[in-house]
Amino acid sequence: MAKILISGGEPLHGEVGISGAKNAVLPILASCLLADEPVAISNVPHLHDVTTFIELLGQMGTQLVLDDRMKMHVDPRTTDRHFAPYDLVRTMRASILVLGPLVARFGEAEVSLPGGCAIGSRPVDQHIRGLQALGAEVVVENGYIKARAKRLKGARISMDMVTVTGTENIMMAAALAQGTTIIENAAQEPEVVDLAHCLIAMGAQIEGAGTSTLTIHGVERLHGAEYEVLPDRIETGTFLVGAAMTGGKVRARNARADTLDAVLAKLEEAGAHISTGPDWIELDMRGRRPKAVNITTAPYPAFPTDMQAQFTALNCVAEGVGVITETVFENRFMHALELQRLGADIRLEGNTAIIKGVEKMSGAPIMATDLRASACLVLAGLVAEGDTTVDRVYHIDRGYENIEEKLGVLGAKIRRLPS
Ligand SMILES: CC(=O)N[C@H]1[C@@H](OP(=O)(O)OP(=O)(O)OC[C@H]2O[C@@H](n3ccc(=O)[nH]c3=O)[C@H](O)[C@@H]2O)O[C@H](CO)[C@@H](O)[C@@H]1O
Ligand SMILES: C=C(OP(=O)(O)O)C(=O)O
């Protein structure tokens, strides 16, 4: 298995280009199933999850071609299998996003239950309940969700909790339903808004994107469109935390500051100087050690769970004590045990981590357990004295495009060791 080797101690300096957002491109690729004409998507990041999604749509008969300008052309007209197999779904939970579009467009879907994962149990009951409310017949048998409907019908759906992919699945299904659907307690994440904008470009009628109530007036068909995926706010945040931890100065290009309010506020609280422009964010730490920050994760616009691990790493080397509370996933502190191997002082109490910053951590072999945990371990390696090797970096390749190249350009001593 490939590993990443980092020799710590170099402050990050320079400019880094941010890729398209993983959590926006995956639902957008799924939404192409709803159209009856080709859709072209630009700013598609080169990520393992994107490759898996292409494989998933490809085995359904959908045609996907990446042109030499890195634009993805998706032709849904050849789609003739409405099936998402366990082997693909288990490697990427976001595969569940084909459920809503398949039922809405083709009247049937068979999608493997994703099962739990390292960060929590992650059930999909809200996806199923939402589709049932739209009139689909849904059974779960032999590990598969089997759904059918002649034509979905609009309904008022109040989600029991804020769910990002749950909101996306129901919004996509409702786009082709007969009549109006109202989703209450909808997710407001920028990626949900990006999906809504893509659907609108395809002819959908959606109001309220970015608020907790979505109103979707179903239409008879969705047509082809061109759409550019929004920049990845979690990748952006990860590089900015790296600059803050190392006392450096980094400008993130092709970044959207308006999607990162809670994260930028915490970086300022940690002592960083932040300046922003229409498509860039610059963080300058002026060689100083960060101050510890307290964080509680929650759905957008609150602090994102997908940035929790990176701030845990920051607190490990900060001045003072930081308390981090994870409220979204029940098991998202596995990086804490690995950070302890580098000399971090972390005490776990239920869903809270109490972190006392240490002046120095020291390099060691450590192991990634999930996507953001692996990013946090790489960040920790940047400040640990000596060499750190991060094992199981396939997790990081799910969601970060060329992370070692991008960090290398910023001055980090980092390289991938082949398996
Ligand atoms: C591909 C994608 O966009 N992934 C993101 C998405 O995951 P995902 O959409 O899977 O996460 P959700 O927003 O659905 O999960 C939020 C909480 O709701 C629970 N829940 C969710 C659905 C359901 O039917 N029943 C249920 O109980 C989950 O277990 C979790 O505790 O949002 C998460 C929360 O911001 C992010 O960490 C992930 O990066
Ligand atoms: C948890 C994440 O992704 P996924 O929902 O695809 O597992 C993530 O992006 O941090």
From TrEMBL:
GO terms for molecular function: UDP-N-acetylglucosamine 1-carboxyvinyltransferase activity. It is an enzyme of class 2 (transferase). The active site is at C117. UDP-N-acetyl-alpha-D-glucosamine binds at R93, R122, P123, V124, D125, Q126, D306, V328. Keywords: Cell cycle, Cell division, Cell shape, Cell wall biogenesis/degradation, Cytoplasm, Peptidoglycan synthesis, Pyruvate, Transferase. Pathway: Cell wall biogenesis; peptidoglycan biosynthesis. Phosphoenolpyruvate binds at K22, N23. It comes from the Bacteria. The modification 2-(S-cysteinyl)pyruvic acid O-phosphothioketal is found at C117. The keyword Ribosomal protein does not apply. Gene3D superfamilies: Enolpyruvate transferase domain. It catalyses: phosphoenolpyruvate + UDP-N-acetyl-alpha-D-glucosamine = UDP-N-acetyl-3-O-(1-carboxyvinyl)-alpha-D-glucosamine + phosphate. Residues 7-407 form the Enolpyruvate transferase domain. Its EC number is 2.5.1.7. It is found in: Cytoplasm. Belongs to the EPSP synthase family. MurA subfamily. NCBIfam families: murA (TIGR01072), PRK09369.1 (NF006873). This is UDP-N-acetylglucosamine 1-carboxyvinyltransferase.
